[in-house]
## 1
Amino acid sequence: MEFAELIKTPRADNVVLHRPFHLAVEGTLCLTGHHLIFSSRRQDNAEELWLLHSNIDSIEKRFVGSLGTIIIKCKDLRIIQLDIPGMEECLNIASSIEALSTLDSVTLMYPFFYRPMFEIVEDGWRSFLPDQEFELLSSVTDEWRLSCINKEFSVCPSYPPVVIVPKSVDDEALRKVAMFRHGSRFPVLSYYHKKNGMVMMRSSQPLTGTNGRRCKEDEKLINATLRPGKRGYIIDTRSLNVAQQARAKGGGFEQEAHYPQWRRIHKCIERFNILQESLIKLVEACNDQSHNMDRWLSKLEASNWLTHVKEILTAACLAAQCIDREGASVLVHGTEGTDSTLQVTSLAQIILDPSCRTIRGFESLVVREWLQAGHPFQQRCAQSAYSNSKQKWEAPVFLLFLDCVWQILRQFPCSFEFNEQFLIMLFEHAYASQFGTFLGNNENERSKLKLSQKTMSLWSWVNRSEELSKFQNPLFEANSLVIWPSVAPQSLQLWEGVFLRWNRPSKFLDEAHEEMINIIKYNKELQAKVNALRRQLAEMETDDRMQENL
Amino acid sequence: VENVRLLDRLSSRKAALGTLYLTATHVIFVENVSETRKETWVLHSQISSVEKQATTATGCPLLIRCKNFQVIQLVIPQERDCHDVYISLIRLARPVKYEELYCFSFNPKLDKEEREQGWKLVDLNEEYNRMGIPNNYWQISDVNRDYGVCDSYPTEVYVPKSANAHIIVGSSKFRSRRRFPALSYYCKDNNASICRSSQPLSGFSARCLEDEQMLQAIRKANPGSDFIYVVDTRPKLNAMANRAAGKGYENEDNYSNIKFQFIGIENIHVMRNSLQKMLEVCELKSPSMSDFLWGLENSGWLKHIKAVMDAGIFIAKAVAEEGVSVLVHCSDGWDRTAQVCSVASLLLDPYYRTMKGFMVLIEKDWVSFGHKFNHRYGNLDGDPKEISPVIDQFIECVWQLMEQFPCAFEFNERFLIHIQHHIYSCQFGNFLCNSQKERRELKIQERTYSLWAHLWKNRADYLNPLYRPDHSQTQGTLRPQMAPCNFLYKFWSGMYNRFEKGLHPRQSVTDYLMAVKEETQQLEEELEVLGERLANLQKSQLNDNKVKSKQQDRSKQLGLSNSNNSLANTPQEYSSDLKSFPSRSPSQGDEEDSALILTQDNLKSSDPDLSANSDQESGVEDLSCRSPSGGSCLPSEDSGKDSDEAVFLA
């Protein structure tokens, strides 16, 4: 294995590990192809730390005499410090970690080597297939069809092989529409609102350009989703300004003249480096130990993170409102239709559809609206808040989505089957994982990598009862209503579970959570006992009566 | 006044039409909608300001701001009526005599005995006994029995045994307003204590032998330590400025074995302005995230809260960990000193984190030691410069601690909010006047009722479901994170945006858990009943003795499980029967409200002419300049439609 070449010093003794809110521990550091392992065998307190190399965002080294110090900053935002005696060893270890954490070939990633230690009950790669989704849909409406037009990824490289489109539009028309949309992402069904039959579609921007090109098939396709005499809304996730500027590059937006039945609403959701910079600033503020209260608030404000959260949530609420309250269909797009578009469509579904608030429903949502919809996870999640490389395509788009979900969860603490830990787990695995689920940028790449054969799916692991119990919200009571979150600044908070996770003592909050679980568990036990006793009594009484009647 | 409109702060479209009544004690607004007749009651004593705004085509707007952070916007059709209401409210909100206050007319239909019982609920002598006092080091002193030494102190004061009347009186002459050092909290495990006083009249060089003896006596009362901390809670600059006026702070050289320490908490004027600024932020119509965070920072409010907390943490640490006694003072020793002593006590002693203990704490550190409730909370018309949210800050400190230690407090957020409400409401006599002396002269206990009895009676509403007396968080000293954890201090929307229910979580974990716990209790009872019946039945079967049991009927009547299951299955309903006044119904089925909230920033440009010309490309551009949400608007196709629905497009 070529990993051996990269590991110059596989092991160092007498290493001291420093973490916030923990006492320093002395132990042995080992490097393997995919992990950094620190183990302390002190009898009173043996512990091991396993860190995936792919979780390492950046590494710094410092020397004081012959004592070297490595500071490792992880994609999950944790920072650890290792004191390694011996300058050469320290340098070796640092350069090994650097090399191992920046492998450029996907097939060298841990998921291709990981062998599960658990029994696979259900293959996660087959848990959420488009056919099953469509079957559910066709039980309520026959206006839609499954199109295999993209079977070989020949029409749209970032779409899955099968997509749901209006029945009245044939594949030939779809091909033409694809030519008219950025990256060939023609409008497809994202969500069907059973309550009133309204739908949400998503696509990329139309390629109208400066001369106002039009495409009859495109107009026909989206009009096919309208009820006679009804109008629909196009939610453009860009500001009007940005959308107009896009025309110069061949992009653009739907002109009123050609789409008279549609009303366009512009929202302003930021992209790429602006989001990435926000994340970097926010994490910096959270890690800053020196400042006073005023600087904390102004740094929080300057990061703009919560502004993004507010914008995204507002756009999603608007989409949901158009569908549920206005009884109108909606088309959502931005530029490529792979980032802000997906934030809006997936959050709108959480607001509208109670099933998306269950664990399985949420997993299915992530598969449908993020993985299959072609959100480029590998590009976006290559680095996180501590990266120095300022690549254009890195952006915490998915993390922002999870943050918005957390905001809704916080406002409706009893309406979600999953808890905060579930969201944090998804955040971690999107950035570094032993599972293949978040590898690749779209289904096309995933199928070329043969992920479903060569790696394990995250869902195979999560959906086992042992794991599930960790992610269940004890307060959950099915709520079939549409839930309307508040987007006022007073209602939005910093997601401490992610951003302050390593900087605050969590003992008391954990205890509170445990107490909550116990209260509910005890209640359920009692209920079971009472029911059992009732049954027993009823039986005895019937026996009695029968005897009496004899 | 009829045909008055009550505006919703979050949405200008939603206004309720109704009738406004002014009574001797309340402003009452009753909605016209016949089936609900929703009523809004506001006590005159809660009104902090009334503002008459420029008359518009629809009528004359009247803005009422309340001390419990409610803001009421009324539109009165006739300018004349509006003016009359305005004038009456101005008068009614500023009573000049105590007798005008609501507590003298409020009658909860309790007999005399019950009233007396109510006042006995909190007994401070009992409290000092609980601390282990009197003992070998501390005794009760009657030196102030006729308020002869200090008229803002209680008659019964606890002082070190070695401090005789001569020392006390001598010391009192050397202290601002004669507020000599007296015991606030005593830790019986290590004899360390917290004492409080006002600033010494030291000027630039004055000293007082008796005062020095007094501090020495406090030190001696803690044999385990050879010094005491003297904590001046003011910023150093303020304290130094006071020296020019013949006041100031202790000179370490004059006192044997003291360690002097400044903790910069700002004065009441800074705090009043800070709150004012923060409330302005809360009142913004549809603030952006930046507006809000910037405004919050700019108000400095959380910085001040943290300063109070840090002072409390410092003292608690000195007492619990170093075993050193502390003397706390500020200028007069009735504002910052009260805040800091009570925060420290709360951290040190789990008793104060129970419902009863918290009442005792407020009674001890605030009421008995002459916190000037009347001046600070403007119960009677007075100098507006005396008003300041001193106890509000303490209450917020408690909330911040509750957020950090969710299992440590027996009571919940609602308890704090109700106490805050009643500090201003003057419905109960507890917080009237500026001192014990004034309250006795007014015979408050004979003429009014005690809030504590009222809260105690409804204590089930105020329980924190996560509290367990045997939980580790409820034991011993609370140790909050110090320095870098600024992010632990958060904006308390439950208090400052208390009446904007749309802003709060739609489902309350506390209420949910309380319902579960209540059900659990009923299940426990039923289990017992069932167990008994089972045993009886088995016995009777053995005896072949058939009892047509009445019990059977009884259990049917109980029907517990059914009713309760449905209760737990619909979290949006479980607290609808909460009758308490800021009814924080977590009901999230309330879609009307919420649908509107998300649209608020689109409301900016709701001019009808804008929505008309939406189809033109240029029209769209135009719109986008006015509001970032841009977009175009559907002319209402269906006039029968609820007008709310199109709101987000406007």
## 2
Amino acid sequence: METQIMSCESDDLNLKATELRLGLPGTDPALEKQSSNKRALSEIDSCSDAKNGEQDRRAPPAKGQVVGWPPVRSYRKNCLQQKKSETDGSGMYVKVSMDGAPYLRKIDLKVYQSYLDLLKALQNMFKCTIGVYTEREGYNGSDYAPTYEDKEGDWMLVGDVPWEMFVTSCKRLRIMKGSEAKGLGCL
Amino acid sequence: MSEDRAEMSEDGGESSSPSSATKPRGCDVSGGGDYLSPSADQVLDNVLDNVLLFLTSRRDRNAASLVSKSWWRAEALTREELFIGNCYAVSPRRVTERFRRVRAVTLKGKPRFADFNLMPPNWGAHFAPWVAAMGHRYRALEKLCLKRMRVKDEDLELLARSFPCFKELVLVCCDGFGTSGLAMVASKCRQLRVLDLTEDDVIDDEVDWISCFPEGETSLESLIFDCVDCLIDFEALEQLVTRSPSLKKLRLNRYVNIGQLYRLMIQAPQLTHLGTGSFSPSEIVAQGDQEPDYVSAFAACRSLVCLSGFREITSDYLPAIYPVCANLTSLNFSYANISAEQLIPVIRHCHKLQILWVLDSVCDEGLHAVAATCKDLRELRVFPVDAREDGEAPVSDVGLLAISEGCSKLQSILYFCQRMTNAAVIAMSKNCPDIVVFRLCIMGRHQPDHITDEPMDEGFGAIVKNCKKLTRLAVSGLLTDRAFSYIGQYGKLVRTLSVAFAGNSDMGLKYVLEGCPRLQKLEIRDSPFGDSALHSGLHHYYNMRFLWMSSCKLTRQGCKEIAQRLPRLVVEVINGSEEDEMEDDFFDVLYMYRSLEGPRADAPRFVTIL
């Protein structure tokens, strides 16, 4: 199963994929992301004739997503959002400790969109390398492994659960030395 | 008048085009000779009135009203429940002139795709002219149900003042009003039994509307306000519940914590429907703190059949609901971000469950558990925690297949996912023959079957072919015109169809418009259907409630031609954002609907009626 981290890395470079366009199916560059050779290309090509010139006059909105898609009402989206922001009032600050560092830091989880974002920030903050996450091996091979304490008091490896779930259940972070983290990484 | 009769008939295969004058056939008893005196007429009318009183279905009534003039008249005088599927199809004045003794009204406004920000919010659907007309003519009004209407506080005030017998107010997906309006209803509608607010956008005027209910015993049976996102006075609520002995349905908002919920539950063990508010304590509860006995509170509610809420859930408290699980027929966890591990111990008690709404956080594994236990399941909705195209979604074809294998009585499904296969959809079509509503949303646009990489045509084709009772369908994923040919060929009962990012050419839409005689509501976005396809539906548009097409291949000229050919159709072209000037040829949305009234007078600037 693809992890969020890996897909985020490709998203960062693939700006075209997140560009909003009012073009029609078949002209959509997002299609190229998937394996295109097996699909019935002929059927798709037939609609890639003239893009509707009139529609192209519209500049795409700033967001990277299409308006109103997927079709989930804002009411429902907001309700799930609320839970996140309510956790700590105006932010979701959690303490971050790193093995060997003299003092702790605090970060606001709300500020990050994804694991990639978070790990980049942590690496920056503590001047360390955390490495790449795999579901099988965890952070094996890197100097440090990020772990967190969840609502139930258990220490978990950062990256196992979907981002949204992580953000709502994370109470504090600890960047463990690679050798110690091995126990968490391989089950 | 003959046109009125044809237009007022909802759905049904009988509706004729308005241009055909329907001569009143019917028994013209008095036309014969002097032998049949007027009194025989009166007798007949009396009999008719009394018989028609028993006719409740609006389709039956519509048919009855077409028989003859006297039947039309009798039906109009005896109809008590009014259903208006599109508030612009008919005017308040026309309605109140025809039907004189109405007690219950259902009124629907904005098209559904407006929920997804595809057009500016001030499009219309104002309740004001309706409440004004009804306040005048329907003094005996008891029930009102509004969906997607713009309702202002003044409207609610007028409502509260105008109808002394008013008993039930149901507002679904409405906006424009606030807690002040609610306060009016609470304080002035002395016979209020039902106040149901579902997914409305309520303005917080900081008015304590709960305190506005009159003193003394109330007749409240249902109080649903989980969408009212405003602080309430808990003491006032507690007292209200205490003095409402008939209260059966109570859905709280997230400002009620679990400790407060407990206090309410012990006051109202007779509840059948409970929405829990936020299912967590107001502050951190340390180990060993004395907490109320939540389990007993739930156990005491022996009649509880429907549970919802669980906003901001602290899953530690979930076991409290175990005592009621065995009786539950409806469970809504769709605001609770719970995992499979958290769901399973709950769901395995829920043998009688018929309706389940969950978030995809329960994963395929959670759905497996549902399939294993809930053999009576009729309706399933799986919503995404992460509602983005490229997000993670932990449910897939695996979960869908499991459900199809375990829940053969399934009638309605709404399923959001990122990965799907034709095989799973085909399996569902065969395992669940009773499906009436099939809505599958593969969130990534143009996503093929993730194993075979083929379009999802065969899956949806199997649904229309094998699910013979299917009336509502929403498609997604990579779809070619073939999918639509299947829908046209087999979807003979389909009334509502939702299409997004699908199809290759005009043929797709043509298949549907030519093949689906029962089609009432068609909503399409971002699909390559153009004027020629639009043209192919001319024979059918008067039979439909509406057609919505946005970001397709239509031109203004093409839409104009439709408007010219069908004078009883209101053809609106709408700009997606309010600031843009209406350019010559460009528009975002086509929304067209049959109407007796012609172009509406309240259209905002970004709407042009052709």
